[in-house]
Design goal:
Helices cover 38% and strands 16% of the residues. It is α+β, with helices and mostly antiparallel strands.
Length: 369
């Protein structure tokens, strides 16, 4: 084990494995294709499709060069094997040299073929071409994808090698060597599997991982699967245009905040409705700028509903603000002001209005009509 060739072999195998299947430590240190060659790859935010076309091509070349790199490194680490002079090397090493060099040269030919006609032959280009309209090309689809990726309201999750992005129009999964793309209006999403893990490396708590399948009615588009933490399921569902089917009857675990938000909405729907003043228009919610502001705070509880436990104890107060928040944002605000260690007190607590700071309870939250 102390010999130079064994030491180099072990070190190179570990390095190559970590470079291909990048752990968090390597990613944090910047040992990734994206970080090392960032100047050539360009900006993902500016040209999402073009960025990943270059990234997948470069990744293929580097990964195929790793076995040949081992031969070159071994020729320096173990000069007694005469690997610098291939005709003097043993038959086994000559065979290894031939196979690894042929693999690298083949990857170069593939990369050159992909780049012909401004990357028209690349797998990502062909994937996008399946969504192109008549008399259009994959570049028009790429322009649409690039535009929507730059928006801040997209849903994105997952590691770089299995990243999932959902925009208003597209569902995409970025892999090491390719990218799957599906048009939202043509797809059906199905929860196919669920796995429960006792401990998450990031949070140190139990985690549920869901497997979802994206299937398109377009026969050219191949179905693909992606994995998702159950705590992100609600955010994904809100971004989708169609409901998600649960083929495996999986029980999806929600976070405490999500459970409270569902309960908060159901209670508010039972409250008195606020009739808008004539000529009063509902503006966009100042919290998310996506939904219409449809919540008005009216003092209706007469001080007998709240049981304490929130940020603001004491009597409820009249709020004179116009409707400025949507139901979801108001529910999130209400939950954020609670004692996270005492969820049993959340529904009976009082919190300040996010705008004027007047205290209110759940009975004071009214839908504006």
């Amino acid at each position: 084990m102390d010999s130079p060739d064994m030491t180099f072999t072990l070190a190179y195998v570990v390095f190559a494995f970590c470079f291909v299947f990048t752990p968090n430590e390597f990613r944090s240190a910047g040992f990734t294709v994206q970080n090392i060659f960032s100047s050539w790859l360009g900006s993902e935010d500016i040209g999402f499709v073009q960025y990943h076309i270059r990234r997948t091509t470069l990744t293929l070349l580097i990964h195929c060069a790793l076995p040949f790199g081992y031969y070159l490194g071994m020729s320096i680490a173990a000069p007694d094997k005469n690997l610098m002079y291939i005709h003097l090397a043993s038959d086994g090493w000559q065979l290894y040299f031939t196979v690894t060099l042929a693999t690298f040269l083949t990857s170069c030919v593939v990369a050159l073929y992909w780049s012909v006609k401004k990357w028209e032959n690349h797998p990502i280009s062909k994937t996008l071409a399946a969504h192109a309209l008549a008399r259009s090309s994959w570049r028009a689809v790429a322009s649409s994808v690039n535009t929507e990726f730059r928006r801040i309201d997209k849903f994105a999750t997952g590691a770089p090698g299995a990243r999932v992005i959902v925009t208003d129009t597209w569902i995409m999964k970025v892999t090491t060597y390719n990218m799957h793309v599906a048009l939202q209006q043509d797809t059906h999403l199905t929860v196919t599997e669920s796995k429960q893990h006792d401990l998450s490396p990031e949070s140190g708590t139990p985690v549920q991982i869901l497997t979802l399948r994206v299937a398109s009615i377009n026969p050219i588009v191949k179905p693909f699967d992606f994995r998702l933490n159950s705590t992100e399921y609600t955010e994904l569902r809100d971004k989708l245009q169609a409901p998600v089917r649960n083929a495996a009857n999986v029980v999806i675990h929600l976070t405490m905040s999500e459970l409270f938000l569902e309960t908060f909405k159901s209670f508010v729907e039972l409250n008195q409705v606020y009739e808008r003043i004539s000529g009063q228009d509902l503006e966009p919610c100042i919290g998310c700028m996506q939904e219409t502001a449809n919540i008005k705070l009216l003092r209706l509880c007469h001080g007998d509903a709240a049981g304490g436990g929130g940020e603001g104890d004491g009597e409820c107060q009249q709020c004179y603000c116009r409707p400025m928040w949507c139901l979801t944002c108001m529910g999130k605000w209400f939950a954020s002001r609670q004692d996270q260690q005492r969820p049993e007190t959340w529904l009976g607590s009082r919190v300040p209005c996010p705008t004027c700071r007047a205290k209110f309870c759940i009975l004071d939250v009214c839908m504006a009509r």
